[in-house]
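In response to a reviewer's request, we include the raw inputs and outputs for one of the modeled complexes. The two entities were modeled together in a single run.
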Amino acid sequence: MAEAAPTAASTTETTPTSGTTTGDAAQRIEPPKLHPLLRFILIRIGISVLLIWGVTIVTFLLTNLVPTDPVAAILGDRAAADPEIVAQTRERLGLDQPLIVQYFTYLSNLLHGDLGVSNQTRTPVLDSIGQVFPASIELGIGAILISVILGLLLGLLSALKQNTIVDHAIRTLSLIGISAPTFWIATVAYFVFFFKLRVIPGAGRLDPWITPPPKVTGLYTLDSLLAGQMATFTNALGHLILPSCVLALFTIGLLTRFSRSSVLDIIKFDYVTAAKAKGLPTSTVVFKYIFRGALVPIITVVGLAFGSLLSGAVLTETVFAWNGLGQYAYRGATTLDLPVIMGVGLVIGIVYIIVNFIVDLIYGFVDPRVRVR
Amino acid sequence: MRRLTRSFVAICSTLALTAGLAACSGGSDEAGGSGDTIVAETAFSLATIDPHRQFEFTGSTIDNALYQTALEFKDGDLTKPTDGLCSFEMSDDDKTMTLKLKQKDAKFSNGDPVTVDDIVFSFERLQGLKGNPSFFLDGVKVKKVDDETIELKSEKPNPALPYILPNSSIGIVNSKVVKENKGTTDEKDDAEQFLNENSQGSGPYKVDTYDPDSQVVLTANEHYNGPAPKYKRVVLRNVSAETQLTDIQSGQAQVAYDLNSDQANSIDDSMAQKTSLPSTRSLYIFNNMDSKVSDITTNEDFRKAVASAIDYDKILELSGEGAQRMAGLVPNEFNGAVPKDQAPERDLAKTKKLLKKSGYDGEKIPFHYSSDQSVNGVDLAQLAETLQAQLKEAGINLALKPAPSATQLDGFRSGKQPMGIGTWGADFPDPSNYNVFVPGGSVAERVNWDKGADPAITKLAEKAEKADEDSRGDAYATMYKSLSDTGVWIPLVQPVDTIVVGNSVKKFVSNADTSFDFAKAE
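The model returned the following structure tokens for the whole complex.
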């Protein structure tokens, strides 16, 4: 492993302080050397913090640039006609303050873990996000598991069977997955699998007459297992299957195409040819040589896909009445609920940053060259 | 390579098997849940279930089941307010209403009896919160006379008061408990969250769990003084109309609120029953009266040309079976409605003459509407496109200006939109609720139609306000007919409110007052 370039500080002599004569005995102060991987992690953390601050500015500015008065969305026709009520509402929401004051108030509250209160429901945004986020996590995990397993395998199979009927079939399927409109797929799938075939339960995270398990993680499948409620677990899992599959379709298509092209690039390398020539078993060549080499660009796509699955499932959540972050964001946007919009924007931004951070770390582990760039 | 293919097939099979097992075990054989649970689905319009703050459809639906009111509309007859918790008497000058506590056996969900103090507190809290529904008791002084009597004194004659008091926003709360939980009768009140999670009413149900984004569960109030509801548990879920259609047919839900008439008609009678009620909402075109906003919409001939260019029968068709023509802004079932047979008809020859007279030369007129809004199944975007096509046939060019509801509403309120589609939902079933459209009224000001701009209408409005109980209906109808004749507001259609009920519900009550009465369903 190459050593990190010495920092400017480590090559500079310390200046003797006035009044002290150290002469030739002046000593170099060697700063403690950071392990390259640790330095890499610290730099990434610093960048992530700056990015999150940037996200707060962008979400705040974009939200406040909307050419609509949020008070109009809150007040009914009669109340909106009463200047006293309008003024009181504006004051209560802090909208009577200059924009810069509003931002610093927002930032200060943010540092105290306060994302504000919904203009519509008057419930703390953080509490609401805490309620809906586990639902999106559960759906996202379900979808990403299905996507990764199927997407990578299909991509690998497609590349290894290049230009055969299997390859063409997989490429066609992946194209359908990428281009089919989610809302339509979700509606049709719900109609067919729930209404016609009766193989899955209906909309929502649980049947309406089932009480949710005691909250630990907010993931019904996990919480019901922890509580030992197997009937609730199977019901929750049943509800999770179809929306996860629908949500996974796009990502399966994306990962299939991406992993196929990535594997095709790696197959041409000499070390793969050498491995085959050595007579190594096919599974060793495929998984240890080809697949590992192809993994680095695939990790990026998986990371970004997971971020978008957590934040962009509005349509799927709407069709399946899945009370997650997507539905919460949609409701906030349509009712011009500024604290909700800013809160969701910030959370989504943080999710992407964290996912990117984890992806960077995985790069560091998977590909040692990354650490010394 | 074969091994890889086998591995792939094995993994896929495992996934499919897991999915199948989970799905089958998670699938429900007991559609509709257990016998004492009723599942209702609607696309939530819900901010709160604190009765004195709520002003949305879903909040009102829930509060109807949680709270009793001083007066009621018996069997949904919106023309006859009747006794609720109290009996009532109006003074001859319509300025004083005397309420007498009638249901002395009424109890809140914690077993406390309902008292006059609770009623007074509820009225005063509604007024003091300065929220969306506070206007209901504007200018009304509330006074406890004794342990059985309350007096409501209005500054001006207030014949609409009996029609206002049945509103679920004026639900009676347990004053003692609400006060213990930061409830007050002014803006300092902080009991909203408490009331969202712990309803304090004497209605047939109490709140069990409350999630304004997903689901609200109600359970029977064992202290309710009426017949015990057959369904002990009500689950109201936030579900899109498309999913409601599937759920009502499968038995997953027993009540669907948001299906449009096409969706409702697509359901086989063996699966569900359809109940259609006249909507209490009006759809209209507005024309701005400020020449700085538009030179042409201020022209009466042009406005009348627009009114005679519309093919109302097509609009009716678009709105679904059960929708009605409107000759005025007041819904046909209300006292003071203009008879339907006086509604304008399409007459393109008349339009041509009027356009020529108005000097309109084909310029494009910005036409504003909410692109994301559907009113009782009438999609406003579709309605705007239909109107654009119809008016184009008559030589009138509209430039469609769609916007999200909040943006559109803000623009309308700012008074800068020349023309567009407006909607008005009745706050209470009385013609005086539509005075806001009279010059100088709060909605009229949005089209810059100021007080005194039309003395004849102002005079008719004053006459209607002063009319006695027997003649006020006709007086209002005359005034609203004149209002329509100006063309500032062009009434389009009164939509229909369709509720679909699953066949597992054998008996139910659905009317214009409560939409669907959970407590009376069997």
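As requested, we also summarize the result in words. The first strand of chain B starts at residue 37 and ends at 42. The first helix of chain B runs from residue 2 to 26.
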